[in-house]
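User: Design a sequence. Structure:
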């Protein structure tokens, strides 16, 4: 490919076409492709690259804590998890009806992994996703409130097709947390989908938030059309810790090596 053509493709932002054009030219010559067939191939290359880049941008904007995918999830470890329901959510159909999702279960059972993996999957379907832990949510509002930018931070939480709020119940939240969470849930209710994970019973939310009326109002709206997934079973983290401990040999002469 000559330099002028390469520069023109870059100027037109046809990077995907520029990357594969040399190979496609050789393919066209070897396979005696028509002009139309050749054009279809190079345009498909450009479309594919643009699609991949769009997904990459969407994942970066989502702000996931970890890179999680459903194909990496060990469904065999906790067989109580409804695999069909998880993949149904990953299809993104629930977003069309602005339905919410609540994942409940003990710590370490895979809630955060599944939430982020579903978020990653719906980004591939074209959805805009924003991921935050509940602590990040409260921190964002406290910071912007002090700076006089409450509406600006609220807009970030109202815009995405799917908002994922993780780690509800890890510890008690600061004052006014209930107000912030209620504002988000109320404004997104029946307009955009929200997914939350919690390791505490719903009746404990009033204590966690420090505001029983706000907790009741949040749950009243959120649960109205929410898909509730109860995840039980052993902890993945404990499983990995057990594997690590089994793989560690006690040094010679230690108590662990002594037989009684």
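Assistant: Done.
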């Amino acid at each position: 490919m000559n330099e002028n053509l390469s520069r023109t493709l870059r100027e037109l932002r046809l990077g995907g076409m520029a990357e594969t054009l040399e190979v496609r030219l050789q393919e066209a010559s070897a396979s005696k492709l028509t002009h139309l067939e050749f054009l279809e191939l190079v345009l498909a290359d450009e479309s594919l690259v643009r699609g991949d880049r769009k997904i990459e941008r969407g994942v970066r904007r989502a702000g996931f804590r970890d890179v999680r995918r459903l194909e990496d999830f060990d469904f065999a470890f906790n067989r109580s998890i409804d695999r069909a329901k998880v993949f149904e959510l990953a299809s993104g159909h629930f977003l069309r009806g602005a339905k919410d999702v609540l994942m409940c279960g003990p710590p370490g059972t895979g809630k955060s992994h599944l939430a982020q993996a579903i978020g990653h999957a719906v980004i591939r379907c074209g959805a805009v996703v924003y991921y935050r832990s509940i602590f990040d949510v409260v921190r964002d509002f406290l910071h912007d409130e002090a700076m006089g930018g409450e509406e600006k931070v609220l807009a970030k939480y109202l815009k995405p097709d799917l908002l994922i709020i993780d780690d509800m119940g890890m510890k008690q939240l600061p004052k006014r947390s209930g107000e912030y969470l209620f504002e988000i849930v109320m404004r997104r209710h029946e307009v955009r989908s929200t997914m939350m994970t919690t390791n505490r019973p719903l009746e404990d939310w009033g204590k966690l938030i420090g505001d029983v009326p706000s907790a009741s109002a949040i749950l009243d709206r959120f649960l109205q059309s929410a898909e509730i997934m109860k995840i039980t079973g052993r902890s993945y983290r404990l499983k990995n810790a057990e594997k690590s401990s089994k793989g560690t040999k006690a040094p010679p002469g230690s108590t662990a090596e002594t037989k009684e």
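The CA atoms of residues 7 and 18 lie 9 Å apart. The longest helix spans residues 35-62.
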